[in-house]
Amino acid sequence: MAHANPTSRLTGSRLTPSGLTLEPGMPICQTDLPLDWYQDEFKPYAEEYQALPDRTPETVLPWLDRYVRPAQDHFGDSLLLLAHFYMGGEIVKLVERYGGAVSDSYALALQAARNPEKKVIVESAVHFMAEAVAILAHDDQQVWITNPKAGCTMEMLAKDHLVMPIADQLIERYGDDLMVIAYMNTSGRLKALAGATGGAVCTSSNAHLVVDWARKQNKKILFVPDQHLGRNTAWKLGMELDKLVTLPDPQVHASNYSLTDGTIEGGIQALDRAEMILWGSYCGVHTIFSAAMVGWWQERGWKVLVHPESPLEAVQAADGAGSTDYLWKAAMNAKPGSKIVIGTEGHFVRNAAAEAGKRGVEIKHLADIPDPSFGSAGCGCATMSRNDPPHLAGMLDLLRLGQAPDINLVQSGDSVDEITARRDRLSGEEQGELIRDAKLSLERMIAITEAGA
Length: 453
Known about the structure:
This protein has three domains: 9-152 and 384-421, Rossmann fold; 155-284 and 438-452, NadA-like (Rossmann fold), CATH 3.40.50; 291-365, NadA-like (Rossmann fold, 3-Layer(aba) Sandwich). It is an alpha/beta fold. It has helices spanning 43-50, 57-75, 91-97, 105-109, 111-114, 127-136, 153-156, 160-174, 188-196, 207-215, 227-236, 250-253, 267-273, 291-298, 312-317, 324-333, 346-357, 389-401, 428-452; strands at residues 9-11, 14-16, 79-84, 101-103, 120-124, 142-145, 178-183, 200-202, 220-224, 244-246, 276-278, 303-306, 320-321, 339-343, 362-365, 409-410, 415-416, 423-424. The chain has a five-stranded mixed sheet with strand order 4-3-5-6-16. α15 links the parallel β12 (303-306) and β13 (320-321).
């Protein structure tokens, strides 16, 4: 087969050039996982990778070619490789090199539905992203994840067994007046909850559109799971912030409380007054950012842009805030000589710095302040980094051989333990109900977003 253009990136449902490249001679930035973290089927590939003399493209790419190219020839144009911007190391560059595509979670979710000729979809990202693809996929498409233990700390603090006992109490009290808005960083089970309550999914790029749509229906909103994106969206829309109620930290209280037992600050009266109720989850990568960090760089002439999963104070102080797509475009479209600081996941910032630097644009990570009093450094998403070259090589080779482990096949409603890889899979009837409701919530998001665009 003729391999696809290796320098493409998804925007909406389209592919556009990103320019991500692997520089000759430069080490591929990937910390090897302990061998015990690999599934048994993947250990031979990991052992080979760890035995390579170095991590430069001159060494790694010929090794990867031995597995990726035969799989591409075997599956032809029916194969689609996907990765998220936050992927660790150089996986984003590797996926694009082999004709795949890299983008934010909104664009990734649409790819199966809008590319029906792609029957075998392999995603290097976290589980909720692959599941979103699977929910919208056609019946003859399969979605595979390179590492089923690749999760999201924010989503781990909003598992359905944590959220549902509280959501049930809220629905019992407010009935049809309550609508759930589920951030993309949730399982299909919570996306189905959003659909069943007349709500929708949102991403960081369209949260303001989705929440504005919900407000126009005079609904009380339960926003799950990221409290910071919810708060920043409310501020962006001009909502009265004293009408927000943040539910307790799920690490402390789990779901073992009643709405009326005093655990919630302000109690039931605050909930009754609330326009939006925020689940108490957050992203560990983004919560370190502060207004003081933003000010340190601004005082030295830098423009500061942050992701809206950051605390409100950092967003208010910054020169701009937006999704990974917004941040990437800002870096790639900046004029030569620009100096930009980005507050988001560390791998993303390093890739942006490398690409923008070729055009004379200087990019720094918001937390990389050379002042010991701040005591911080740019952090990457460790769970996404569980997808590495051995996982990509092994997944494609095992698929070609017809030996791919079933645990790597992603179906709607699957819940996978990020430590043990134990999977809970719904029955066929339960899957059907979940797909119906979760697809509704995703389709509402798409309709709202495209109308807003």
